[in-house]
Q: What sequence folds into this?
């Protein structure tokens, strides 16, 4: 199936470039230069979140872009380093290092590359298993909260870069406490420089400047460093920037427990793919297109495997780089290739200039990027629209702060599972009735003038019946039965929305029928779908209910009950219109 936002269902290399027109080349080349300019600051800054050298970020902005252009479905999505993914990677590397045998150590850059390959292989496995559906597993509200929590962790993590201190504490509060205790040791010039660069980013953003704030900071801070000699003033500078391109190689992780690498790759995959697919969908909607998560898994797999083999770390879809591609007018993945080639030239010819880039400026870039992850308007909308989902977002915000990023990932997945299971365990129900002079059946609690049919109770169950909600549904039916008016002779369950049922639920449904029979009320079923009907037939439930209490639709129920009680209002013909019994 075509992804819509790409080149169709073809599987050949560079399928997204099929039908490329030379007339698009100027705009794609211009977009590529803009992507490289905007991506350069984050490429240098983001590796420090995970304690990696700057060159890994540059490498992560070259090979993965070309790999995604070759295998990815989207014409305009740009991959690259991502702050949230880097924070998860930092926790993964810490966990792997802690799990190493005593006396052994591993190169963090090699570990990061191994995790990137693991993420790529996980994407590939998910693609072959058709698990692109997990893109919808982590909901936007939960990711909104989770990214806000990660962003606060990133901001606190920049205290050392802003102050020149080596902060030993971890977490959200302890580093701040340590800073207050060591205030006399703070390097004031570093603080002033970091705050000034942060102000530059904020001012340019407020002015809607055509020059991105991080780009301005890189140029300005590097120029000031060359002019004033920041390293002589005690301000830390980057120093280590590569002068050559990475070679294709398998990362050396001999002696590293493989299970830790695999579990770390899966944790990183959950966050990076969850964030990446949201970015892909958001920009696809702007373009009037759709995405195919399974096809995106192919592109992300190629990008991460390429990152791992070329000395980089896990990558995902980059919202900032993709936004630049859209704003400048890039139309195809030629823009990605042009951006990668531009960064190759930076490594070959501008590495000396990048060596004197002051570390506080990188801290300012990271703080600005992290602040951009905190979506306060989205949290406010959640508060207004759904207090439940707002609570889930706050829980997801709290998890990485209180428990650590990796444990936070587990908590977020757990919260999602519990939320889904809770909703499935408690399917909604509604009693139905008729409206005077109107056709069809209406929910009594939602339609003020709807009235129940005397002696007949119609109930719509809005969800499937499965082992984990069978007892809950039976208890709910018992509550309804106790509240039925005196003289009720029939209770018919509208099974329109029961699309699945298992043997446990079939037994529960049989017991529900017996419960009503014990109260002197006949139990019936209406609008069973074929799969549900077949299972209930094999289980013998339909025979025990009785064929005369099985109905094609609610109109049949009403006609059958009218024959039993001629005083019952006759059913009105149902015109072709949306079913009013289903949720609005």
A:
């Amino acid at each position: 199936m075509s992804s819509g936002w790409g080149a169709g269902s073809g599987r050949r290399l560079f399928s997204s470039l099929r039908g490329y027109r030379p007339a698009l080349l100027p705009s794609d080349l211009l977009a590529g230069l803009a992507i490289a300019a905007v991506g350069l600051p984050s490429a240098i800054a983001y590796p420090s979140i995970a304690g990696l050298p700057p060159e890994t970020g540059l490498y992560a902005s070259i090979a993965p872009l070309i790999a995604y252009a070759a295998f990815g479905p989207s014409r305009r999505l740009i991959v690259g380093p991502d702050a949230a993914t880097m924070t998860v990677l930092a926790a993964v590397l810490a966990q792997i290092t802690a799990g190493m045998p005593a006396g052994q150590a591993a190169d963090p850059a090699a570990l990061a590359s191994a995790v990137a390959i693991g993420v790529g292989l996980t994407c590939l496995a998910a693609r072959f298993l058709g698990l692109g559906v997990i893109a919808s597993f982590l909901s936007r509200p939960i990711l909104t909260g989770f990214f806000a929590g990660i962003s606060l962790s990133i901001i606190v993590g920049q205290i050392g870069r802003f102050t020149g201190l080596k902060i030993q504490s971890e977490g959200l509060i302890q580093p701040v406490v340590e800073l207050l205790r060591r205030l006399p040791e703070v390097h004031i010039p570093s603080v002033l420089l970091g705050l000034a660069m942060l102000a530059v980013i904020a001012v340019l953003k407020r002015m809607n400047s055509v020059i991105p704030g991080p780009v301005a900071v890189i140029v300005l801070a590097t120029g000031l460093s060359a002019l004033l000699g920041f390293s002589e003033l005690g301000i830390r500078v980057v120093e280590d920037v590569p002068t050559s391109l990475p070679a294709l190689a398998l990362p050396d992780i001999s002696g590293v427990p493989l299970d830790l690498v695999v579990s770390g790759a899966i944790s990183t995959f959950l966050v990076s793919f969850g964030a990446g697919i949201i970015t892909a969908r958001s920009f696809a909607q702007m373009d009037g297109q759709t995405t195919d998560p399974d096809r995106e898994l192919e592109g992300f797999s190629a990008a991460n495997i390429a990152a791992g083999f070329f000395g980089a770390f896990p990558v995902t879809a980059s919202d900032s780089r993709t936004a630049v591609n859209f704003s400048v007018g890039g139309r195809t993945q030629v823009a990605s290739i042009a951006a990668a080639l531009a960064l190759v030239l930076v490594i070959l010819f501008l590495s000396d200039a990048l060596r004197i880039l002051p570390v506080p400026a990188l801290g300012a870039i990271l703080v600005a990027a992290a602040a951009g992850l905190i979506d306060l308007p989205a949290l406010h909308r959640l508060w207004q629209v759904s207090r439940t989902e707002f609570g889930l977002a706050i829980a997801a915000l709290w998890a990485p702060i209180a428990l650590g990023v990796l444990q936070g990932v587990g908590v977020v997945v757990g919260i999602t599972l519990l939320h889904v299971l809770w909703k499935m365990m408690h399917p909604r129900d509604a009693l139905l009735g008729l409206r005077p002079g109107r056709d069809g059946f209406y929910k009594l609690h939602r339609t003020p003038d709807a009235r129940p049919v005397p002696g007949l109770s119609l109930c719509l169950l809005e969800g499937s019946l499965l082992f984990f909600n069978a007892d809950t549904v039976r208890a709910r039916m018992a509550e309804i039965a106790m509240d039925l008016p005196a003289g009720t002779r029939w209770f018919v369950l509208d099974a329109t929305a029961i699309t699945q049922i298992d043997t446990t639920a079939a037994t529960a449904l049989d017991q529900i029928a017996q419960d009503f029979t014990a109260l002197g009320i006949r139990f019936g079923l209406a609008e069973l779908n074929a799969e549900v009907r077949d299972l209930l037939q094999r289980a013998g439930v339909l025979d025990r209910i009785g064929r005369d209490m099985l109905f094609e639709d609610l109109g049949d129920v009403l006609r059958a009950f009218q024959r039993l009680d001629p005083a019952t209002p006759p059913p009105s013909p149902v015109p072709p219109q949306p079913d009013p019994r289903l949720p609005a």
User: Anything to note?
Assistant: Confidence is low (pLDDT under 50) at residues 1-10, 571-584. Strands lie at 79-80, 316-317, 428-433, 442-443, 456-462, 490-494, 522-526, 550-551. The longest strand covers residues 456-462.
